[in-house]
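Example record

The entry below shows one chain as it appears in the dataset: sequence first, then structure tokens.
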Amino acid sequence: MILKRRIQTNEWDSNKHRVKTSSIHTKSTNQYLDEFYSGLFHSFQQLCIEGKHITSHSELTL
């Protein structure tokens, strides 16, 4: 999946998996990442509740 966001590599915190700087643009990018991760987690929980087998090859329906 492509998130269609770009930053300079020196702005990326690989430990936190977030953009380091605190400009309005990077805060927006971090918020976008939070929303994306939240959606992924929600989808994962729903699949677990439904008893679906989840693998890296599972097909996604969005």
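Notes for this example: The mean pLDDT is 83. The two ends are 12 Å apart (CA to CA).
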